[in-house]
């Protein structure tokens, strides 16, 4: 069903903690705190500013640029330019938008106009999407694969990014393909100008963000 029960989550956590104890990563013998005290400490750590900073540093270190023609990356949009974010699933778009919005808030990029679009099986390079690409200054599209069959050029999950990139190239738009699943799909996007591997496709619920800036999920 794709859902995990609390019992399954508890089992997973127990295995992780046991492994850390066995490997000497955690020393519980000298820890005399009560369960309540441990929970209180955990609540001050998980989701804290320091914790978020570490999460971000780890994520940044995992990003791999595998293609960067004409030094498209890093993107440096001008004030008021249009950035189009495209993904195959709706739950992936909020995270993309969150990332751009945060960069603007941190003054790391200029303020830009953000447009989003979802491509899907049977709805790839539609007239609507063409119009959005035509209006965009930068196009960022997510690509992913779950199994070997997805590498077929005719499979919608691969045909989608390819058709988007080809159309952006026709219009001389700067476009970036971001591989968010298993990284082998980068080999099938031969016409892309820039490709990045990020190894993570889990989406983001828009209700998990406060004002588009601060994640509330811990």
How would you briefly describe this protein structure?
This protein is of the alpha/beta class. 36% of the residues lie in helices and 17% in strands. It is built from 6 helices and 8 strands; from the N terminus they run H-H-H-E-E-H-E-H-E-H-E-E-E-E.
Structure description:
With 218 residues, the chain is an alpha/beta fold. It is 36% helix and 17% strand. It is built from six helices and eight strands; from the N terminus they run αααββαβαβαββββ. The protein has helices spanning 6-22, 35-45, 49-62, 93-105, 127-135, 156-170; strands at residues 64-68, 82-87, 113-118, 138-143, 174-179, 194-197, 209-210, 214-215. It has a six-stranded mixed beta sheet, with helices on both faces. β2, α4 (93-105) and β3 (113-118) form a beta-alpha-beta unit. It starts with 5 loop residues before the first helix and ends with a strand. Keywords: Hydrolase. It comes from Clostridium celatum DSM 1785. This is Glycoside hydrolase family 3 C-terminal domain-containing protein. GO terms for molecular function: hydrolase activity, hydrolyzing O-glycosyl compounds.
Mean pLDDT score: 88
What's the arrangement of strands in the largest beta sheet? 1-6-5-4-2-3
Provide the succession of SSEs.
Answer: HHHEEHEHEHEEEE
Overall structural class, as computed from helix and strand content, comes to alpha/beta
* Strand-residue proportion: 15-25%
Distance between the termini: 24 Å
How many structural domains can be distinguished in the coordinates?
2
- Quickly name the level 1 CATH class of the largest domain: Alpha Beta
CATH architecture of the largest domain: 3-Layer(aba) Sandwich
Shape, per Cα inertia axes:
elongated
CATH homologous superfamily label of the largest domain: Glycoside hydrolase family 3 C-terminal domain
Helix percent band:
25-40%
Gyration radius (Cα, Å) is 21 Å
Low-pLDDT parts are: 210-218
Number of strands: 8
Largest pleated sheet: 6 strands, mixed
